[in-house]
Amino acid sequence: MSNVIWHETKMTSNNTPSPLVASASSVYPSTVAAWKAFNGTTSDNQDAWASTSGVTDAYVILDYGKEYVIDRVKITSVNGAVTFGTKNFEVFGSNNNTEWTLLSSELNIPVWGKAEAREFIFNKKGNFRYLKLRTWGTYQTVENYVGIGDIQYGSDIDKKLAIKNYVTNKHYSMSDNTIIHLPDNSTKNMILHGIEQGKEIQLDVPFDKHTYINDKPVASVSGKVFTQDIGIINTLNIRENREEKSIVTTWHETKMTSNNTPTPLVASANSIYSSTYDAFMAFNGGANITGDGWAAAIGTTDAYLTLDYGSSREINCVKIQYMNNNDITFAPKNIIISCSSNDNDWKDIGNFTNLSFAQNEIKIFNLQSNISRFLRIRMSMSNGANYIAIGEITFGKRSEKEVK
Ligand SMILES: [Ca+2]
Ligand SMILES: [Ca+2]
User: Fold this and answer.
1) Mean pLDDT estimate for the chain
2) SS3 helix, strand, coil % of the chain, rounded to 5?
3) CATH code 3.40.50.300 for 4-160
C-alpha cells in the first residue's frame, strides 16, 4: 500500500495560486511557460514547459511558499513527440533560493512514451520550500530544446503520523502541519462532532478555513472576545443567566407653600428679587407659570439657596429646572451644590460650569453620594442678565433595583 503524498500545485500562472511561484532559466515560447510544468495536466503538446530553441540545459524552479517534506519526483513527459523526453536531470532543494542541496541525479534515462509519468525516489529526504529541476541532453534530432509535461514532488509519509481520509483517500501528516482537518461548516453543532465519533469528524478543510470560531474579535469590549456560531441547538439548552436591573430614582419632593411650610422643611436664600420670587418658590413643586421660581436681587449674579429637610436624606443626584420664561438670560452658568449635617460645615458634592438652559428645561446632575439634612445650591454668572433665577430644584437618590 502506497503512503505517498504528492504536493499538488495546479498552477494557472507563474504565481497562481498564491503562494506558489514557478520560474525557469529559459522559456520557449510563452505558451510553454514554467507554470505549465506545475498545472497538473498534460492535455496536449503545449501543456508543458520548454526551453528556448538551442538551449538543451535548463532548469525550472518551484517555490511552494512553505516547506514540505520531499523525497521523490514524478515527471510526466510532453504530450507530443517522444523525443522531448528528459534524458538527464538533477533535483535540488533549498529553503532560501540560494544554497541548494542535490537530492537526485538521473542520467541516460530510457526514451519516454507520450505523456508518460515516471516516479523517481531520491536518496535524500528533507524539508524544502524551493525545488529546482535541471534537465539536460535530448533525444531530439530536429530541434534542440528540453521540455517537461508536468512535475510533482512528494514524499513517503511518516507512518506513525499519518491520517487517511477514507472519502478522498488522501493522507494527512505533520508535513502538512495539520493532522485533523475540520469541515468549514456543518448542519450539526460542534458538540455533536465530539459525541458521534467517526461519523461527525470530517478531515477535509485546514483549520484556518473553518468557521466555528469567528476570526474577528468582538469590537468595543474589554480584552479579546471571540464568538462562535453553533447554529441550531438541539442537544443542549444553554440559558443566559443575567441579572436584570433597572435604575430607580426616588425624588425627595418638597411642594413648599412658604419658606417653612410644610413642616419641617425650611427654605432660605441670601438674596431675593422680591417676596414673589422667594426661596421656597424653587421648592414648590414645578415651574408652571412664568414667575414660578426663585430670583436674586437685581445686580446679584452670585447667590445661593439653602434647603433644610429637617432630617437626613440619602442624596446622589439633583434635578434643576429653569423658569417657565422664554428669556433664558437669567439662567445660572455655574452651579455648586454643597451638603451639611449641621448648617455650618459644608462639603461640595457637585460643581457644574458653563451651563445654559432653555425655557422650562430640566437638567439632572449626578452628585457625590451623601446623607444630609441641609443642601445648598450656589448659582453664579448669569447667561447675560444682571440677576439670577431658577424655576425648581429637587434632590434625589438613584439606585439599581433588581427586576424579579
Ligand atoms: Ca502541464
Ligand atoms: Ca417652582
Assistant:
1) 85
2) 10, 40, 50
3) no
